[in-house]
Amino acid sequence: MKAVAVSKFKDIPTVMDLPKPAVRPGTVLIKVAAAGINPFDWKMVDGIMDGAMPHQFPLIMGVDGAGTVDEVGEGVTRFKKGDKVYGQFIHAPIGEGSYAEYAIVPEKSGLTLAPSSLSAAEAAAVPTSGMTAQQMLDHLNLQEGDTLLVVGATGGVGSFTVQLAKLQGIHVIATVGDDAAAERMKKLGATVTINYKAAPLAQQVKAKYPGGVDGLIDVASDGAGFTANLDLVRPGGGALTTVFVADEAALKARSIHGGNFETKGSAASLDTLSLIIDRGELQVPVENKIRLEDVPEAIALSRQAKGKGKTVIII
């Protein structure tokens, strides 16, 4: 089968011809239809999980995926052949990922039946980004009418955050870089958009919300940027970053709760998202559809933070 993999840590991803995985007890073999790209995928190539989980090489990349169950292993009860599924394919050993024509996934991982209203490409865009947005909002515990500033709103996590917050009656302020992005964010539910290229973000937010916002979700800023953005949050508010750059002392000094946030994937979390999606209350933002052959270039763009919107690999 064809797969995008690396032969060692920090290697450049390439399309390889690799053996089709054999199903094991407690696992399902999935014929992958689509895989979602996330920055965490190349961070695993760089060894972010080295020492925490076993790895195997060639290491097939990819966490998010969607497809059809092709075969079930001994003891599997949750799925049967032919089921349409989606979720996070990550498990031990690292290296049996979703950037492949076939993938083997434990039944008890973050895998569940796919929303009936989505295509495979749309479903593959949901797991990590959708669960991250959902769980960050749960963690902030904002109330109806509260204000939430989303920095990095136009990406996958940001787009889900804007929509899910809107469903909770939260007043969403989304950062954008141009008029087209502003229009898209308004359609997704942002109450206000702020073009960070027009004037400094802090200046614009303070002019509109002099008392500070209730919550901050920042999926884009470096350490200095995140710390600076804390000044936009009222004392007692909450602030989260997915980039792991939070200064705990800076948060404490401002009486702000939150900090670095790590998603905990689960089938139950995905099932909640599926219900919202199938009710027609959540749009899935797929901006780019590429082939396996295009993945190395897409990963390079992601590393440089030059990727635009959610990218999905059609397999």
TrEMBL record:
It holds the Pfam family ADH_zinc_N. Residues 2-313 form the Enoyl reductase (ER) domain. Coiled coil: none annotated. GO terms for molecular function: oxidoreductase activity. CDD domains: MDR_like_2 (cd05289). InterPro entries: ADH-like_C, ADH-like_N, ER, GroES-like_sf, NAD(P)-bd_dom_sf, Zn-ADH-like_protein. Signal peptide: none annotated. This is NADPH:quinone reductase-like Zn-dependent oxidoreductase.
